[in-house]
Amino acid sequence: MKIKKKLPWSLLLFFSSCCIISAQELFVRDGYCSYSAETESNGDIYTFSSDEEANKAVERILKYTGLKKNFTIKAANVNNAEASIMGNTRYILYNQDFMLRVKKVTHTDWAAISIMAHEIGHHLQGHTLLNGGSRPNIELEADKYSGFILQKMGATLEQAKAAILSIASEQGSDTHPGKTARVAAITNGWIEARDLTSPPDTDKTPDTDPVHQPADTSSRLPSTPTPAVFYVSRCVFANDPTAYYVTNTNIIITINQFGQVAVVGQKLPPTFPNFAWMYQTAYTTYGVAPNGFIFGSYPNGTLMQVGYVTNP
Ligand SMILES: [Zn+2]
């Protein structure tokens, strides 16, 4: 015999009010990389809905990457900001008070954007899937990525470095390098992005010392008309609807639905014998085989096909 039980109204009200009050959720990390070295363990971590400013910053960054968002953003009682993973879901957690302090000290919105770009860099490079969390070498990769992306977004080098200059300690730790190394990584990424987008200098010989290039942007404009840039092949990645194009100048770009072009990387000569060329971005390098197959590698070195190129 089936007995249909009814919950008393008082109990229903209790459950529904619980759901409204308990907007915070206990978060158990399976792996994470933070922005700067931890001080004390802060016990249980709870996440809260993220604020509009953080969401907008992330959306802006992603526009310039040409990549899909593969994480959820949450405010949390973490020490600063971190890229985390729980189960199969990726997160960016940030401490709202920390972000407000950074903004107050640096007097620029670019500081918070660079922190978010650093965390996005961790996810895009698969750092949270590695055992052990933050380590100096992967922190520098994420810093370089933030410098690269901020240049593409229009930040000056000073704006790209603002957060790290105000937060990083001079001394390195087991998890994070010292300030000078982190500033150098951001600068390196920023310059790499600037050079990718600079107009080609037709007078430049390949072995010209870059130190002697004029610093003034106007004087870098070529005196003769810029040769036409056109696309020679298209790159398609599994589970990524974005199309990437390789130009005759060996730059890899993406074009969004509004026709805006973003530089995502460059085509480089092969550094491994079985590849025709390397597809390099600020955060990863793929190998392209002579048949057009694009290969990525797992941290253990195993190769896996991730896409293909037309007209390899
Ligand atoms: Zn980090």
Automatic annotation (TrEMBL):
GO terms for biological process: proteolysis. Keywords: Hydrolase, Metalloprotease, Protease, Signal. It comes from the Bacteria. GO terms for molecular function: metallopeptidase activity. Residues 201-210 have a biased composition (Basic and acidic residues). Residues 194-223 are annotated as: Disordered. Residues 1-23 form the signal peptide. This is M48 family metalloprotease. The lineage of its organism: Bacteria, Pseudomonadati, Bacteroidota, Flavobacteriia, Flavobacteriales.
